[in-house]
Amino acid sequence: MAPVNQDLPVLQENIKNVIQDLLQILAQTSNYDSAGRPSRDALASDLTTLSASLQTAYRTAAAVGPEPGVPETLIHYVENGRNPDIYTREFVELVRRMNQLMRGKMGAFREFRDVLAREMEGALPEVKEDVRRVVEATGGGGRGRGRRGGIEGS
User: Fold this and answer.
1) Predicted confidence band at 153 (pLDDT cuts at 50, 70, 90)?
2) pLDDT reading at 60 higher than 80
3) DSSP run (H or E) holding 2
4) Residues 6 or more apart from 50 whose CB is under 8 A from it?
5) Span between the terminal Cα atoms of the chain, in Å
6) What Å distances lie between residue 36 and 23, 25, 46, 87, CA to CA?
7) How far apart are CA 8 and CA 24, in angstroms?
8) Looking at the whole model, is its pTM more than 0.85?
9) Taking a C-beta distance cutoff of 8 angstroms, is the pair 53, 18 a contact?
10) pLDDT of 68 strictly over 70
11) Percentage of the chain surpassing pLDDT 70?
12) Could you tell me which of 47, 59, 46, 45 has the C-alpha nearest to residue 15?
């Protein structure tokens, strides 16, 4: 789990203040009297307060930095009005396909290593011990694993 930034609660409080200021402006504009001076002064005061709250939230957010864990592509996906669960499902399917492909490649390279080792031992008996050491260092079986896991006839 990622460490929690100490400024995060402060940022959350700043965002709550911005929301509160926006609600106050909403109330002022719904009761605005174009002819009355008190409404204009109150609205101007609330707009000034909102500006200060936004600046404070911006400075705190810059200090906190980007929050890890939420991919930017997911944010764009949600901003475009799509369901994040569908994004997650598609991402999991993509990772599963990539894992299967990688597993297949790893198996093919393992088999190639073993075939190459057998052929090198047969063609160059003087390097048999070196080949066996390389196979064991790369995760191959060596003795007693038979044809699939190591060098044949070990």
Assistant:
1) very low
2) yes
3) none
4) 18, 21, 22, 25
5) 46
6) 21, 16, 16, 52
7) 24
8) no
9) yes
10) no
11) 84
12) 59
